[in-house]
Write a structure and sequence with these properties.
It comes from Paenibacillus mesotrionivorans. Keywords: Initiation factor, Protein biosynthesis. The protein folds into two domains: 70 residues, Ubiquitin-like (UB roll), CATH 3.10.20; 83 residues, Translation Initiation Factor IF3 (2-Layer Sandwich). Helices cover 35% and strands 33% of the residues. The protein has four helices and eight strands; from the N terminus they run ββαββαβαβαββ. It is rod-shaped and about 85 Å long.
Length: 163
Amino acid sequence: MINEEIRAKEVRLIGPESEQLGIKPFREALQMAQDANLDLVNVAPTAKPPVCRIMDYGKFRYETQKKEKEARKNQKIVDLKEVRFSATIDEHDFQTKLRNVLKFIQDGDKVKCSVRFRGREITHASIGQRVLERVATEAESICTVERRPKLEGRSMIMILAPK
């Protein structure tokens, strides 16, 4: 709340240079802010009496928005990448897909490794589990297994996260 929006008889006042001005009647505090060509901003409305500060509210809002924008820019958004294996994967294909898994993890993304079972392969789900466990052991130096291999429908899924 700023200026006339504040509903208190007296306020604890902080000056424009962050100096304590003590407890003042609201009208006197508002007059001091207007004399300095600044706003009276309620910074702690729950305190007894409420704490108000004399500041340039527009400049304060601008700087706050700028800091929030900077914080959003520095955030890392973690994507979930998927690499599909087959139960009967050959060695070279396995190494190629493993390289992709390692690259995604080094970029800071989570990786969903899945084995899709086709036809009667589902009866030998242990083969797919061995493939996923091999991926986990090969990549254990740079990642952790967030979710162990689990059969969901015709797919077995495992999720790896960077350390």
